[in-house]
Each structure stands twice: as structure tokens, then as C-alpha cells.
Amino acid sequence: MLKNYVSIFLLLLCVGFVSNSQAQQVLSKLEIKAKEVYTVNPDNILLVDTLIMHDKAVIQFNAGTPAFVGVNTAFVSRDCKFMLKGKNGLLKENDPESLEGKDGSSIEIDIHFEKLGSLFVDTRGGNGAKGVDGNYEVQSTKKTDADGSFKSLAPAKAAVAGGKGGKGGQGGNVSFAYSSNGFIPRFNQYRKQHAIIIVTQGGKGGKPGNMGKFEGPGGPNGQIKLINKNLKLDPSL
């Protein structure tokens, strides 16, 4: 039954977070084959009754947009991924902003695991690109033929310092509410059974261009919030 996340979806609809046109994203079942990549719609909202991810299956979200995932029942195999990493910067002529790494997307997850091999959630920021290369000073030179006649003249060029590297993108925040049936998920414990690895590091700053001095600044890390829905509050408190 989709009742839990239909209600969440209706709440989001009421507050204007989603539009009526996005209602078809509520899925009764989503099965992703081994090594297959499933790309979420541009709004980054995924509501599923039953989610089945085979080994190394990937759910790819769109960079730059906050994401929401609600799953009533999940069967997750080994080395599966939720990918929200920002893109790395690129060196483009006359476009200094292209050097900057893009921010990773933040995500809110509400999920119940019936099975869990390992799940990797990646909201890291993209790395900054290397700065524009500089050059040494070039002296004016005159070339002549053997008989002394003029042949060519190479103009002088002033030295140009290398450009600063691009800054790294910010890591996205992760809010992870979870429950499980008969096992305890292990967070950020690599090579463990039932592992959930969450990485939210900011992107690395780009190196300076040749003859440059300044690296780009690294991006700030995203924050992680974990909510264990298996724990029940004492009603007497």
C-alpha cells in the first residue's frame, strides 16, 4: 500500500513543493536490474511502494535540485547507490565560473528496509577545475637568412601569471529516516553487512594554472541527520 507516502506527497502538494503534474511519480513498484541506472525525473521526487535494487543498481538524481525519496518497502542488494554528486568544474574560454565545481544536491529519505546489502548515498560537491595556464616572458627575436636579409620577426610577450583554481562545490545535506526488519543498519562502516555509506564532503579546490600561485577553496561539507524509526519513544515521558 502507498498510504504512508501518498500522505507525504499530498502534504508536499499542499505546501507547493510539488505540482499536480508530478503525481504520476508515485510508483507501486520500481525494480532496477544489476548495474542498471535509473534516472529520477527533473523534480527529484521519488515515491515508491516497493523498491527492488539488484547488485550495483544506481538511482541517479539531478544535480542542483533538492531531492525527496519515500519508500514503504525496500529490497536493496550489494553496492547500490543514490547519486547526487555535483559536477566537476571545467576550463572554458572566457567563462571563469565554469571552473567552479557544482554543489551536490541535498536529499531527504524516508525508507523501510526488508533487505539491505549495502547502499551508498553520494551528495559530494564537484571539484574545482585547474586554473588557466600562464606563460613566461618572451623576448622579441629577429631571424635573418644566411645572406643577412630579413626573414621574420617574433613579437615580445609579457609574462602572464597562471589563473586561480576553481572553488569546490558544497556537499549536499542528508536527512535519513529509516526502519528495518530484523537487522540494524551500519552507517559509514565499510565492508560490513547491512552498510549504509553517506558521503557529503565538499569538492576539492582546483589547482592553479601553470605559473599560478593560488588554489581554489574547497567547498563546505553537507550535514547528516539520521532518524531511527525502529526506536519507540516511552509514552510516559
TrEMBL record:
Q: What top-level branch of life does the organism fall under? A: Bacteria
Q: Which residues form the signal peptide?
A: 1-23
Instruction: Alphabetically list the UniProt keywords.
Output: Signal
Question: What protein does this entry describe?
Answer: Collagen-like protein
Organism in which the protein naturally occurs: Pontibacter arcticus
